[in-house]
């Protein structure tokens, strides 16, 4: 296990928007889901992170892994965060940040069932150039900013590879 990484600070709404635009994919296949999911698992294992990882394209689950220390609660968080991405087409952290920027919480401002939707960091849209949002990659098990940062790091490495 490596030394603990400092917790990231929440990026601004414009930073999150730019991040999302920058991390659009040229395509996303079943093999890409395996590669991205495996990369996330590798990064989490290197850090001793007790996370669950999920990748979906539309309604189909293409990848799922629950590392030691994660629980069924993480799967429930994955579902709630992923539903925010599916509904808004933006990362779960960005959706929550937009509400906070207006001085409201997602829970009170969206009027959506908090047992079904969670605008907490960790779910990121899989956006394919020319097709738009086709799915989501989600991590749960760390504080929300660290979940988000792990997904972003994996997407950056995946796109660079």
Short description:
It comes from Streptomyces pyxinae. By secondary structure, the chain is of the alpha+beta class.
Describe this structure in words.
The protein is α+β, with helices and mostly antiparallel strands. It has one domain: 2-Layer Sandwich (Beta-Lactamase). Helices cover 48% and strands 17% of the residues. It is built from six helices and four strands; from the N terminus they run ααββαααββα. The protein has helices at 13-22, 30-47, 72-88, 92-101, 106-110, 144-160; strands spanning 52-57, 60-66, 123-128, 132-140. The chain has a four-stranded antiparallel beta sheet with strand order 2-1-4-3. Strand 3 (123-128) and strand 4 form a beta hairpin. Helix 2 (30-47) packs across helix 6 (144-160). The longest helix is centred in the first third of the chain and has 18 residues, at 30-47. It is globular and about 40 Å long.
């Amino acid at each position: 296990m490596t030394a603990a990484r400092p917790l990231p600070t929440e990026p601004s709404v414009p930073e999150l928007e730019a991040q999302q635009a920058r991390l659009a994919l040229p395509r996303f296949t079943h093999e890409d889901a395996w590669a991205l999911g495996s990369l996330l698992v590798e990064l989490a294992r290197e850090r001793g992170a007790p996370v669950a990882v999920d990748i979906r394209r539309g309604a189909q689950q293409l990848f799922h892994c629950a590392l030691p220390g994660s629980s069924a609660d993480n799967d429930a968080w994955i579902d709630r965060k992923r539903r925010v991405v599916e509904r808004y087409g933006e990362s779960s952290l960005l959706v929550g940040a937009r509400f906070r920027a207006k001085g409201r919480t997602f829970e009170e401002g969206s009027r959506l069932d908090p047992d079904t939707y969670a605008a907490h960091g960790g779910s990121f849209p899989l956006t394919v150039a020319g097709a738009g949002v086709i799915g989501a990659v989600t991590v749960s098990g760390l504080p929300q900013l660290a979940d988000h940062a792990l997904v972003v790091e994996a997407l950056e490495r995946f796109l660079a590879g």
